[in-house]
Amino acid sequence: MNIVIREIESKDYVSVAAIWRDVLGLSSVTDESVAKTCEKMKGDSRYCTFVADMNDNVVGLVTIVETLAIDHPPNGYIKVNGLAILPEFQHCGIGKMLMERVEKLASERNISLIGLASGFQRTDAHKFYEHLGYQKLSFYFRKRI
Q: Would you say the pTM of this structure is higher than 0.70?
């Protein structure tokens, strides 16, 4: 299996939208919303999306943002906004490859902390993150307004 981890390109938007909907179960994500959001993110170096490309097909992705918080290191931290791998390619090391690319980016930017949130129901994902050395520290809350 020849997997290349690379930055997202506009040709990937439809595949990324499908993965976001099908793997993460977010049916409200459309091809158009992904394209619009990714184009906005393109102009801001704090954002980055990496895809796992196998023979010119996107089989996984991770999207991140570099951010600041008062209780985090002064040089900021990287927040993983989403990680998803097509089911038929899970347990093949692709998620680990994507997270290693995020960790490399953090190192390149002199950032020493990566954080993420994962839904209660994603127990396999929790095991995956813990296997990579991430600690479960809190609950995440949100409110739509």
A: yes
